[in-house]
Amino acid sequence: MTSPIDVEGGEASVVVDGTPQPHAKAEADQLEGRSPGRLMWIRFKRDRTGVISACVVAFFFVIAAAAPLISKLYGKDPYTIYADERPELFDSAGVPVQPNGGISGEFWFGLEPGNGYDVFTKLIYGIRTSLMISVAVTLAVVLTGILLGVTAGYLGGKADYAIGRLIDFLLAFPSQLFFIASMPVVVSLFVSPRDETPTYVRVVALIVVQWVLGWMSLARILRGTTLALREREFIEAARVSGASPWRIIRKELLPNVVTPLLVQTTYLLPNFVTIEAGLSFLGVGIVEPTPDWGQMFSKASTELVLQNDITYMFFPGVSMIIFVVAFNLLGDSVRDAFDPKTAR
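RE: above sequence
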């Protein structure tokens, strides 16, 4: 009699007349004694889509971190106005005279119509700005989600009710409209409307606004997971042994919410990248001369660029699509690696 006993990585392990076959024994020997984290890593490495996506995401972060070095080796920066320094490169309307936006061996991605910024350095510095803001927002959201979500789920009672109603209240706001409306308000708290707003104030405002309206979904997921875990035997055993609530949360609950936490984080970061880009596109985020991903979209949508250099949109558009798609695929692969029952 033959019956399947395990499926791992697409290969079935079988037992014939109660005796494991050689390949099943070998696979069992490989997996025996492995920690859940190690098993997750083994499954993730077998997922080509996940590995390629991770490499693409890592490439973007390396580009962002190394932007100053790349700019130095390239010999240009994103702040030089070539329309003033080298007017022979532009016509009377401020459009590069060479085809395809002035793409050449000297200017790899061409020149921006109007001011004439170098597109290549502006793009890599724009990626740096957007990722820096989005990573900061993600870290703040994750810490807040852990603190409030796990606390509400474990303590229950009045604490759960208060945190739950706060989550419901904030989720009732139309987030996209509130982002747009609240940015000028937050900026005005730091700078007088008569003064020019420093870039760091805009960065802080973007982080604060996205954080305040971005932590609720993660907190709700962690609350639900914690509610299910707090009734498990190992939690009850920790209570009986006299462990404090803080120790139970830190030693017993947090290690068991890593899976949903990590999966949700891989979805949150690209979402915050697109939100930040959208705010800059609408003029309430980062503004010139500070490079930003969304600001490049805003520039590409102007009449001057649309009529004279349609290729300008290509580089920021394609790079953002690749980044967001790769990060979302990475999130799917991480989820499948933690829980093979959901594998595609």
